[in-house]
Amino acid sequence: MSRIVVIGAAGGVGTRLVGELIARGDVVAAIHRRPEQAEQLRAVGAEPVLLDVADEVRSGVPDRLAEVARGADALVYAAGASSAPIDVARVVDGDGVAFAARAAQAAGVDRFLLVSAFPDAWRGQGMPAAFEEYMGIKKDADVALAATGLDWVIVRPGTLTTGARTGRIALGPAIAYGDVSRADLAAVLAEIVHRPGVSRQVVELTDGTAPITDAVDAVARL
Ligand SMILES: NC(=O)c1ccc[n+]([C@@H]2O[C@H](COP(=O)([O-])OP(=O)(O)OC[C@H]3O[C@@H](n4cnc5c(N)ncnc54)[C@H](OP(=O)(O)O)[C@@H]3O)[C@@H](O)[C@H]2O)c1
Questions:
Q1: 185 with 206: CB under 8 angstroms?
Q2: How far apart are CA 56 and CA 50, in angstroms?
Q3: Which residue puts its alpha carbon closest to atom 28 of ligand 1?
Q4: Which of 2, 8, 136, 208 could bridge across to 79 with cysteines, CB 3.0–4.6 Å?
Q5: Cα 184 to chain centroid, rounded
Q6: Is the pTM of this model over 0.90?
Q7: Is 135 in the pocket of ligand 1 (CB under 6 A)?
Q8: Hey, whose CA ends up nearest to atom 14 of ligand 1?
Q9: Local mean pLDDT, 10-residue blocks, the chain (222 residues)
């Protein structure tokens, strides 16, 4: 049993991840932004923690986040603000990651998983400038996390769907672009967080044919 902090716990990926972790017997500190999300998180067995990452970043001091993280085995950053104005996304998807990494370090929590984005997503499809900017913010966050001394793993999923958990994926340092369900992404995060052999690595994820445990075995440095 591990204690895992999930940031963005009430989101599409976050709720599914919380479910996966609880099913494994983990204790989950579920960081969420809106008060009304607490009940749903408590109902599935998580410990809801109301905390707005943007407010914390603006405060400049990661004390509150560090306090939540203290004693945890890992932190998973699954928050994102892709549909918010780009200035908000810059704080939540960008600065927030480096800020959470600082909080993890202050709390002595070494393991840090980040939900990033597949670099090829929607390329050449006439996406608005803000999308390009958003992708740049995601990449900058990866760079900032990879520069830390933490035991980080960056997961870059393809386009996320609301499809069912299939338990079958493609996972690797460089794979062809495709879709993946939030349910399968959550299952992969829950598996990787418990696999110390996957460390200081960037992995791309899409739908595929490999069972999740086999796919994670294949990227783990045993
Ligand atoms: N959509 C795609 O195809 C795609 C592809 C690759 C990667 N991704 C990445 O996947 C991640 C998760 O996606 P998703 O589908 O789960 O998104 P989502 O459903 O929008 O969930 C994101 C969560 O982050 C929370 N959040 C936003 N601002 C916050 C803040 N200031 N403090 C605390 N929490 C905050 C949101 O809170 P509220 O519930 O209050 O809004 C929400 O619960 C994002 O980082 C996204 O960039 C997405």
A1: no
A2: 12
A3: 81
A4: 8
A5: 13
A6: yes
A7: no
A8: 12
A9: 97 98 98 98 98 96 97 98 95 98 98 95 84 95 98 98 98 97 98 98 98 98 71
